[in-house]
Amino acid sequence: MASEMPTNWGPERTSQVSPLDEWLAAGASLAAGTDSARPFNPMTAVWGMVTRDTKSAGIQGPGHAIDVATALELYTMGSARLNHESDRLGSITAGKLAVLAAHPADPLTASPDVLAALGPMFPSSAAARSMTRTACWTQPEQSSDAGAVMIGRCPRTRRRAG
């Protein structure tokens, strides 16, 4: 779809698509995620929010780019807040749910150009079966390894009758 937008909408209108920076400045409560039916690396969306680059149409509206920390926050705490579950999801905090994965580089310090390629190094198949499509990310508040950055995906909520 992105490749058709500049042709169908024109470059000026296309550059205004998803002005996250403006929405955040206006105080909007935002979240990031996907409804893709196939496996999707959340870092691809983070890359798009940070660089405003697309896989098929090039950079669109670079003035609306947001920083990596904000993009990750939208994917984690933003999604948890939107779902009214920030008390149990969205950050790596004692008592909260998460399935963790390690990445080969720290998204906060890596070049924005490599963010889309930062897939998890060891996702387990058992964990993958129990996860939703919403990522839960945060840098540990207290860590003996300051370089550790973990991205987890939240387990599905299972409600029992009775």
Based on the model shown, name its key terms.
alpha+beta, 6 helices, 3 strands, 28% helix, 162 residues, 3-stranded antiparallel β-sheet, 11% strand
Word description of this protein:
Helices cover 28% and strands 11% of the residues. The chain has 6 helices and 3 strands. The chain is an alpha+beta fold and 162 residues long. It has one domain (5-155). It has a 3-stranded antiparallel β-sheet with strand order 1-3-2. The chain has helices spanning 5-9, 11-15, 20-25, 42-51, 68-82, 125-129; strands spanning 99-102, 131-138, 150-155.
Number of helices: 6
Number of domains: 1
% residues in beta strands = 5-15%
Shape: globular
What are the secondary-structure elements, in order, as H or E? HHHHHEHEE
The spatial strand order of the largest sheet comes to: 1-3-2
What is the helix fraction of residues, given as a range? Answer: 25-40%
How is the secondary structure organized here?
Elements: H1 5-9, H2 11-15, H3 20-25, H4 42-51, H5 68-82, E1 99-102, H6 125-129, E2 131-138, E3 150-155
Antiparallel strand pairs: 1-3, 2-3
Structure summary:
The chain is an alpha+beta fold and 162 residues long. Helix content is 28%, strand content 11%. The protein has 6 helices and 3 strands.
